[in-house]
Specification:
- It is a single chain.
- The protein is an alpha+beta fold.
- The chain folds into 2 domains: 221 residues, Metalloenzyme, LuxS/M16 peptidase-like (Cytochrome Bc1 Complex, Chain A, domain 1); 198 residues, Cytochrome Bc1 Complex, Chain A, domain 1.
- It has 16 helices and 14 strands.
- The strands form 3 sheets. It has a 7-stranded mixed β-sheet with strand order 1-2-3-9-4-8-7.
- Strand 7 and strand 8 form a beta hairpin.
- Helix 1 crosses helix 7 and helix 3 runs parallel beside helix 8.
- It is globular, with a radius of gyration of 23 Å.
- It starts with a strand and ends with a helix.
């Protein structure tokens, strides 16, 4: 095992890539009672076109297969993995993003047994046409639930504006129609391509002895047979095509107050490895400087009644694409979006001078403090782990990188990230009958 000491933070991570290609990272925290384990495959909803393992020609799978696989992995021929986790006192879950699928558990006892359950159910696929057909109804109801989620529709609306021809604009769960096309054979071919140990990682944090836990994991993996690792041939998103961006769209839903979101598609190339993590952290600091609740923009819009406590902003960086969003419920969508766009297009106004220096130091200290607080949560540590995206960096690496970020880093980031041609707006507006009811 390699040992990575973070002396300033008083933490040590143990890391080893097993013979089958599985990357294992262990972060012991002996003063904790709970252990949290996260097993992730570098495969998400945007990975629709690829060459299956052992095949020569590429295929395009239906929308929603990654999420469908997440659901189906728990069900086996004679048991459900959730039942086994419950037997050993663990809380288990899973989630799918645009580029990753993760399976996890949290437990304060029976760590060996729960680790075995996690490794075994993820590495033992079981699909039949009958069980797949049953799952379609369950996931169809989940899709319909998200169709009624106004904030999710707002988010997917702006993503659709920024990436109208890329698979990222499609709901992670797919559509009711697309999941009807999924077959057991497709699930197996996809599983065999993306769920090989060499495309996965296991991150464990909590109360344990690292040598003991690594021995358990190795024994579990040694008892299984895997094909040799092979490169994955998949279509990646081209992030630098500004011609396809839709500048504005709106949608009417059953809301009483309009919702507006401004998005910016990154058209620049993100550095690889740890430099990519530095890029992401600088982008987060930039948004804090521009839009935190102490910023001039926030206070002006809040005092004018243009925004309320729903105001939010975020930066997303995933394999192949990155974008930022700023959103709020607002009675004046035009004023809101124009104000946000003005800030982005005149970003130097907030990044130059003594006031900018002071603001940067403030948001940087707050970010470092937030990261240090996250180190007290095993869930936060594990869920912050991005796997291969940033060369296997973790929350400890993030905290150290934050310490060394400068205002010049943020200024450079702003000039490469923010381009007027990358900006778009999406509004969710009240249905006419909703408006009439409110006015009556």
């Amino acid at each position: 095992m390699e040992k990575h000491d973070y002396q300033q933070l008083g933490e040590t991570i143990y890391e080893e890539t097993l013979s089958n290609g599985l990357l294992v990272q262990l972060l012991p925290k002996t003063d904790f009672h709970k252990t949290y384990a996260l097993m992730t495959t570098d495969f998400g909803s945007t990975d629709r076109t690829f060459t299956p393992r052992g095949a020569e020609e590429s295929v395009t799978i239906p929308d929603g297969v990654a999420h469908f696989l997440e659901h189906k992995m728990f069900e086996k021929a004679d048991h459900d993995a959730f039942d086994l986790f419950g037997k050993f006192g663990a809380d288990a879950n899973a989630y799918t993003s645009f580029t990753r699928t993760s399976y996890l558990f949290a437990a304060s006892r029976h760590l060996k047994e729960n680790l075995s359950v996690l490794l075994d159910f993820v590495q033992d696929p079981y699909f039949t046409e009958a069980t797949v057909a049953k799952e379609k109804g369950i996931i169809g109801q989940e899709i319909q639930m998200y169709d009624d989620d106004q904030n999710w529709q707002l988010f997917m609306g702006i993503v659709g504006n920024l990436y109208p021809t890329e698979p990222v604009h499609i709901d992670i769960a797919g559509t009711v129609d697309s999941i009807q096309q999924i077959t057991a054979d497709q699930l197996m071919a996809t599983y065999q391509t993306f769920y090989h140990p060499s495309n996965m990682n296991l991150f464990v944090v909590g109360a344990f002895d690292p040598q003991t836990v690594m021995t358990w994991i190795k024994e579990n993996q040694a008892a299984k047979n895997f094909d040799n690792p092979a490169p994955i041939d998949r279509t990646v998103i081209e992030n630098n095509d500004q011609t396809e961006i839709l500048p504005y769209r709106s949608r009417h839903l059953d809301v009483t107050m309009p919702k507006s979101i401004v998005g910016l598609r990154g058209l620049d190339e993100v550095p690889k490895g740890r430099d990519g993590l530095k890029y992401s952290l600088a982008a987060a600091l930039l948004l804090d400087m521009l839009f935190a609740d102490t910023s001039k923009t926030y206070l002006k819009l809040y005092d004018a009644g243009v925004i309320d406590d729903s105001f939010d902003y975020d930066f997303s960086l995933e394999r192949g694409f990155h974008f930022l969003t700023v959103s709020s419920d607002t009675n004046d969508p035009n004023t809101f979006s124009e104000a946000i766009i003005n800030v982005l297009e005149h970003v130097d106004d907030a990044l130059v001078g003594q006031e900018a220096i002071e603001n940067f130091e403030l948001v940087k200290r707050e970010a470092i403090g937030h990261h240090i607080m996250m180190l007290n949560s095993v869930e936060a540590i594990a869920n912050a782990y991005e796997g291969k995206l940033f060369d296997n960096a973790n929350l400890l690496d993030e905290t150290q990188l934050l310490e060394h970020l400068t205002l010049a880093d943020v200024q450079e980031l702003a000039h490469t990230l923010i381009k007027s041609e990358g900006i778009s707006v999406f509004d969710v507006l009240p249905n006419e009958e909703t408006t009439n009811t409110e006015n009556s």
